[in-house]
Amino acid sequence: MAVLETIEKETLMANAVVIGDYLLGQLAGLKQKYPALIREVRGKGLMVGAELSKPGREVVDRCLQQGVIINCTAGNVLRFVPPLNIQRNHVDEVIAVLDGVLAQWQ
Questions:
Q1: pLDDT tens-place string over residues 28-77
Q2: Quick one: CA dihedral 57, 93, 31, 51, positive or negative?
Q3: Measured distance CA(1)–CA(26) in Å, rounded
Q4: Which domains does the chain have, with CATH numbers?
Q5: What's the DSSP call for residue 84?
Q6: How many CA atoms are closer than 13 Å to the CA of 46, on its beta-carbon side?
Q7: Rounded CA separation 40/30 (Å)
Q8: pTM of this prediction exceeds 0.85
């Protein structure tokens, strides 16, 4: 009950919608920047994926070396499932790291 009360009190579901849309938009920007690497960006709320044109293990490893934890599923889909209380500046940090990794990975 305490968890549900906290989610409601801190409006974490509304935050998930707002920040999830922001994350999708930032990833869509990377898709435009790297169209040969990112095939599709999809998701809802804070469950977001970016499908790559090649296996993503190396991207995951390089991001991890820089302190960003990203999961890779199906071999080529980067999966982002941040906590409900994530803020815009956290998304910006992840996108900056991912941008740098993708720039080197082309």
A1: 999 999 999 999 999 999 999 999 999 999 999 999 999 999 999 999 99
A2: positive
A3: 34
A4: 2-105 (3.90.1150.10)
A5: T
A6: 17
A7: 10
A8: yes
